[in-house]
Amino acid sequence: MNDENFEQVQQLIALKRHEQPDDAYFEEFLDEFHRRQRQELLQRSSRSLFFERVSTWFKDTSKWNFVMGGGAAYAAVMLGFFFWPKADTTTPAEIDTTPIEHIEKEDMLKPDKDKEPIHEAY
Question: How far apart are CA 92 and CA 85, in angstroms?
Fold first, then answer.
């Protein structure tokens, strides 16, 4: 590279150093950035988004939260077990103790009196 080209490059860099884009450039950049983020989210499947959110939630929660939650659930079940209203066992249930009438019926295994028995050998 010769000295003339080198000086031109130095002058160009010095000019560019003082250039700044206007405020509209930054507003358009922000709008374009948000549009691309939304477009990227729409391209991903809902299942991958769900798994990402669940994994993020699990990363943010500590293990002690699960221990305390399990202990609270166990305590609630035990309180329900001990304080659940029980059936009233102090008064016995009323049982119908009237005697049952037995009606004498003909024996089903005896042959009818008006018919002759059938004697067939098989």
Answer: 17
Distance between CA atoms of 52 and 44, rounded to whole angstroms?
A: 11
| CA-closest candidate to residue 41, choices 53, 23, 29 | 53
Distance of alpha carbon 96 from alpha carbon 14, whole angstroms: 111
Instruction: Tell me the per-residue pLDDT of 35-91, one tens digit each, with 9 for 90 and over.
Output: 998 888 777 777 887 888 888 877 777 777 778 888 999 999 999 988 887 776 655
DSSP3 helix / strand / coil % (the chain, rounded to 5): 60, 0, 40
CA 41/CA 35 separation, integer angstroms:
10
Q: Please, are residues 110 and 104 in contact by the beta-carbon 8 Å criterion? A: no
pTM as predicted: 0.28
| Amino acid at residue number 14 | A
Nearest-5° Cα angle at 51, 49 to 56: 95
Query: How many angstroms separate the CA atoms of 84 and 77, rounded?
Result: 10
